[in-house]
Specification:
The protein is of the alpha/beta class. It has nine helices and eight strands.
Amino acid sequence: MQLNTHAVEGTDPGLFAEVIAPDGGAPASRPVLLLHGFASSSQLNWHNTGWVSALTSAGKTVITVDLPGHGRSATPADPQAYRPSRIRADLLQLLMDAGVLPLEGENPASGVDIIGYSLGSRLAWEFGATQPEMVHRMVLGGGPGTSDPLTGFDLSAARAALAGNGEIHDQTTAELIRMAQLVPDNDVAALLTMVEAVKDEPFIPGEAVPGMPLLLVAGDRDSFAEGAAELAGLSGNAEVLQLPARTHANAVTSRAFKQAALEFLS
Protein backbone atom coordinates (compact mmCIF):
# COMPACT_ATOMS: atom_id res chain seq x y z
CA MET A 1 0.00 0.00 0.00
CA GLN A 2 1.39 3.40 -0.95
CA LEU A 3 1.13 5.95 1.83
CA ASN A 4 0.04 9.49 1.02
CA THR A 5 1.65 11.83 3.53
CA HIS A 6 0.48 15.23 4.71
CA ALA A 7 2.42 18.45 4.36
CA VAL A 8 4.81 19.60 7.06
CA GLU A 9 4.92 23.36 7.68
CA GLY A 10 2.65 23.83 4.68
CA THR A 11 5.09 22.31 2.19
CA ASP A 12 4.51 18.93 0.56
CA PRO A 13 7.75 16.94 0.81
CA GLY A 14 6.66 14.68 -2.05
CA LEU A 15 7.96 11.59 -0.28
CA PHE A 16 7.24 8.15 -1.69
CA ALA A 17 6.35 5.81 1.17
CA GLU A 18 4.85 2.34 1.48
CA VAL A 19 3.28 0.28 4.23
CA ILE A 20 3.86 -3.42 3.64
CA ALA A 21 1.78 -5.90 5.62
CA PRO A 22 3.30 -9.03 7.16
CA ASP A 23 2.93 -12.39 5.47
CA GLY A 24 0.03 -14.68 6.30
CA GLY A 25 -2.23 -12.11 7.91
CA ALA A 26 -0.20 -11.91 11.11
CA PRO A 27 -1.83 -9.89 13.91
CA ALA A 28 -0.98 -6.21 14.26
CA SER A 29 2.42 -5.62 15.79
CA ARG A 30 4.86 -2.75 16.16
CA PRO A 31 5.89 -1.63 12.64
CA VAL A 32 9.47 -1.26 11.46
CA LEU A 33 10.53 1.94 9.67
CA LEU A 34 13.38 1.46 7.18
CA LEU A 35 15.67 4.42 6.37
CA HIS A 36 18.05 3.98 3.46
CA GLY A 37 21.48 5.47 2.79
CA PHE A 38 22.76 8.36 0.72
CA ALA A 39 22.36 7.92 -3.06
CA SER A 40 20.30 4.77 -2.51
CA SER A 41 16.55 4.12 -2.19
CA SER A 42 14.13 1.81 -0.43
CA GLN A 43 14.12 -0.42 -3.50
CA LEU A 44 17.90 -0.75 -3.61
CA ASN A 45 18.64 -0.73 0.11
CA TRP A 46 15.77 -2.82 1.45
CA HIS A 47 13.76 -4.63 -1.22
CA ASN A 48 16.58 -5.84 -3.47
CA THR A 49 18.69 -7.02 -0.52
CA GLY A 50 15.91 -9.15 1.02
CA TRP A 51 15.25 -7.04 4.11
CA VAL A 52 11.57 -6.38 3.41
CA SER A 53 10.80 -10.04 2.74
CA ALA A 54 12.77 -11.13 5.84
CA LEU A 55 10.85 -8.73 8.06
CA THR A 56 7.39 -9.46 6.65
CA SER A 57 8.09 -13.21 6.82
CA ALA A 58 8.85 -12.68 10.52
CA GLY A 59 5.42 -11.09 11.01
CA LYS A 60 6.55 -7.45 10.91
CA THR A 61 4.69 -4.58 9.25
CA VAL A 62 7.24 -2.55 7.27
CA ILE A 63 7.18 1.16 6.45
CA THR A 64 9.59 2.28 3.72
CA VAL A 65 10.28 5.81 2.55
CA ASP A 66 12.52 7.31 -0.11
CA LEU A 67 14.36 10.33 1.27
CA PRO A 68 14.06 13.68 -0.59
CA GLY A 69 15.91 13.57 -3.90
CA HIS A 70 16.11 9.78 -3.80
CA GLY A 71 14.25 6.92 -5.45
CA ARG A 72 10.64 7.73 -6.25
CA SER A 73 10.44 10.80 -4.01
CA ALA A 74 10.41 14.36 -5.32
CA THR A 75 13.57 16.38 -5.92
CA PRO A 76 12.66 19.73 -4.36
CA ALA A 77 14.49 22.84 -5.51
CA ASP A 78 14.37 24.30 -1.99
CA PRO A 79 17.50 23.27 -0.04
CA GLN A 80 15.49 23.49 3.18
CA ALA A 81 13.65 20.30 2.18
CA TYR A 82 16.89 18.34 2.54
CA ARG A 83 17.91 19.54 6.00
CA PRO A 84 18.11 16.65 8.51
CA SER A 85 15.83 18.53 10.94
CA ARG A 86 13.20 18.97 8.22
CA ILE A 87 13.48 15.33 7.17
CA ARG A 88 12.95 14.27 10.80
CA ALA A 89 9.78 16.39 10.89
CA ASP A 90 8.62 14.71 7.67
CA LEU A 91 9.33 11.27 9.18
CA LEU A 92 7.26 12.09 12.25
CA GLN A 93 4.38 13.17 10.02
CA LEU A 94 4.78 10.01 7.94
CA LEU A 95 4.48 7.83 11.05
CA MET A 96 1.40 9.73 12.18
CA ASP A 97 -0.17 9.29 8.73
CA ALA A 98 0.60 5.55 8.94
CA GLY A 99 -1.32 5.37 12.23
CA VAL A 100 1.70 4.76 14.46
CA LEU A 101 0.83 5.54 18.09
CA PRO A 102 3.22 6.74 20.79
CA LEU A 103 4.66 4.04 23.02
CA GLU A 104 2.14 2.86 25.57
CA GLY A 105 3.39 0.60 28.36
CA GLU A 106 3.61 -3.01 27.25
CA ASN A 107 1.33 -2.53 24.22
CA PRO A 108 3.25 -4.39 21.45
CA ALA A 109 1.46 -2.48 18.70
CA SER A 110 2.50 0.98 19.94
CA GLY A 111 5.52 2.94 18.79
CA VAL A 112 7.91 1.99 16.01
CA ASP A 113 11.20 0.16 15.59
CA ILE A 114 13.71 1.69 13.17
CA ILE A 115 16.38 0.11 10.99
CA GLY A 116 18.68 2.61 9.32
CA TYR A 117 21.68 2.33 7.05
CA SER A 118 24.43 4.93 6.56
CA LEU A 119 22.72 8.34 6.24
CA GLY A 120 19.52 6.60 7.37
CA SER A 121 21.30 5.62 10.59
CA ARG A 122 22.36 9.21 11.25
CA LEU A 123 18.74 10.34 10.78
CA ALA A 124 17.51 7.52 13.01
CA TRP A 125 19.97 8.40 15.81
CA GLU A 126 18.70 11.97 15.87
CA PHE A 127 15.05 10.96 15.44
CA GLY A 128 15.26 8.53 18.35
CA ALA A 129 16.88 11.20 20.50
CA THR A 130 14.28 13.86 19.70
CA GLN A 131 11.17 11.64 19.52
CA PRO A 132 11.75 9.06 22.29
CA GLU A 133 8.01 8.68 22.85
CA MET A 134 7.72 7.08 19.39
CA VAL A 135 10.73 4.75 19.16
CA HIS A 136 11.02 1.37 20.87
CA ARG A 137 14.34 0.01 19.51
CA MET A 138 16.74 0.85 16.69
CA VAL A 139 19.19 -1.05 14.51
CA LEU A 140 21.79 1.26 12.97
CA GLY A 141 24.00 -0.18 10.23
CA GLY A 142 26.87 1.27 8.21
CA GLY A 143 27.12 4.21 10.59
CA PRO A 144 26.60 6.74 11.83
CA GLY A 145 30.27 7.21 12.52
CA THR A 146 31.51 9.73 15.02
CA SER A 147 32.57 11.83 12.01
CA ASP A 148 30.02 12.46 9.26
CA PRO A 149 31.44 11.78 5.77
CA LEU A 150 29.03 14.30 4.25
CA THR A 151 30.29 17.10 6.52
CA GLY A 152 33.73 17.00 4.91
CA PHE A 153 32.38 16.54 1.39
CA ASP A 154 34.13 18.85 -1.11
CA LEU A 155 31.09 20.36 -2.84
CA SER A 156 32.95 22.78 -5.11
CA ALA A 157 35.33 20.11 -6.36
CA ALA A 158 32.44 17.70 -6.97
CA ARG A 159 30.42 20.25 -8.91
CA ALA A 160 33.47 21.28 -10.95
CA ALA A 161 34.33 17.66 -11.77
CA LEU A 162 30.77 16.88 -12.81
CA ALA A 163 30.92 19.89 -15.14
CA GLY A 164 34.16 18.55 -16.63
CA ASN A 165 36.34 21.18 -14.99
CA GLY A 166 38.74 19.33 -12.74
CA GLU A 167 39.25 16.30 -10.54
CA ILE A 168 38.12 15.34 -7.07
CA HIS A 169 41.14 14.83 -4.81
CA ASP A 170 39.31 14.07 -1.56
CA GLN A 171 38.86 10.28 -1.44
CA THR A 172 35.61 10.34 0.53
CA THR A 173 34.05 12.87 -1.85
CA ALA A 174 35.18 10.84 -4.87
CA GLU A 175 33.74 7.63 -3.41
CA LEU A 176 30.37 9.22 -2.63
CA ILE A 177 30.12 10.64 -6.14
CA ARG A 178 31.03 7.24 -7.56
CA MET A 179 28.26 5.66 -5.48
CA ALA A 180 25.77 8.29 -6.65
CA GLN A 181 26.62 7.72 -10.32
CA LEU A 182 26.27 3.93 -10.03
CA VAL A 183 22.47 4.35 -10.03
CA PRO A 184 21.39 5.59 -13.48
CA ASP A 185 18.19 7.22 -12.20
CA ASN A 186 19.90 9.27 -9.49
CA ASP A 187 19.51 13.02 -9.74
CA VAL A 188 23.07 13.94 -8.76
CA ALA A 189 22.28 17.67 -8.59
CA ALA A 190 19.55 16.94 -6.00
CA LEU A 191 21.95 14.74 -4.05
CA LEU A 192 24.48 17.57 -3.94
CA THR A 193 21.73 19.86 -2.65
CA MET A 194 21.21 17.36 0.16
CA VAL A 195 24.94 17.36 0.90
CA GLU A 196 24.86 21.15 1.14
CA ALA A 197 21.95 20.98 3.59
CA VAL A 198 23.61 18.27 5.68
CA LYS A 199 26.81 20.32 5.89
CA ASP A 200 24.73 23.10 7.45
CA GLU A 201 23.50 20.67 10.14
CA PRO A 202 26.52 18.45 10.88
CA PHE A 203 26.11 15.26 12.87
CA ILE A 204 27.20 15.81 16.48
CA PRO A 205 26.10 12.60 18.23
CA GLY A 206 26.75 13.79 21.77
CA GLU A 207 24.31 16.69 21.46
CA ALA A 208 21.26 14.41 21.37
CA VAL A 209 21.64 10.77 22.40
CA PRO A 210 18.85 8.21 21.97
CA GLY A 211 18.02 6.37 25.19
CA MET A 212 16.28 3.29 23.78
CA PRO A 213 18.16 0.01 23.13
CA LEU A 214 20.40 0.14 20.06
CA LEU A 215 22.14 -2.42 17.90
CA LEU A 216 25.08 -0.87 16.01
CA VAL A 217 26.23 -2.93 13.03
CA ALA A 218 29.12 -2.37 10.62
CA GLY A 219 31.47 -4.24 8.37
CA ASP A 220 34.97 -4.39 9.76
CA ARG A 221 36.21 -2.83 6.49
CA ASP A 222 33.74 0.06 6.55
CA SER A 223 35.58 3.34 7.12
CA PHE A 224 32.29 5.28 7.07
CA ALA A 225 31.14 3.49 10.23
CA GLU A 226 34.24 3.98 12.38
CA GLY A 227 33.45 5.02 15.91
CA ALA A 228 30.67 2.53 16.70
CA ALA A 229 32.29 1.80 20.08
CA GLU A 230 32.28 5.51 20.91
CA LEU A 231 28.60 5.79 19.98
CA ALA A 232 27.85 2.76 22.14
CA GLY A 233 29.62 4.50 25.01
CA LEU A 234 27.52 7.62 24.51
CA SER A 235 24.36 5.53 24.50
CA GLY A 236 25.11 3.25 27.43
CA ASN A 237 22.35 1.03 26.05
CA ALA A 238 23.86 -0.37 22.86
CA GLU A 239 25.21 -3.61 21.46
CA VAL A 240 27.86 -3.61 18.72
CA LEU A 241 28.12 -6.21 15.95
CA GLN A 242 31.04 -6.28 13.52
CA LEU A 243 30.62 -8.15 10.24
CA PRO A 244 33.88 -9.82 9.15
CA ALA A 245 35.22 -8.90 5.69
CA ARG A 246 32.26 -6.61 4.95
CA THR A 247 32.52 -3.09 3.51
CA HIS A 248 30.11 -0.16 3.46
CA ALA A 249 28.82 -1.34 0.09
CA ASN A 250 28.02 -4.94 1.00
CA ALA A 251 27.39 -5.05 4.76
CA VAL A 252 23.68 -4.45 4.17
CA THR A 253 23.40 -7.75 2.25
CA SER A 254 24.78 -9.80 5.15
CA ARG A 255 22.59 -12.64 6.38
CA ALA A 256 24.16 -12.27 9.83
CA PHE A 257 23.07 -8.61 9.86
CA LYS A 258 19.47 -9.54 9.09
CA GLN A 259 19.40 -12.34 11.64
CA ALA A 260 20.85 -10.14 14.39
CA ALA A 261 18.33 -7.39 13.61
CA LEU A 262 15.38 -9.79 13.71
CA GLU A 263 16.51 -11.24 17.02
CA PHE A 264 17.09 -7.76 18.47
CA LEU A 265 13.62 -6.56 17.46
CA SER A 266 11.75 -9.72 18.44
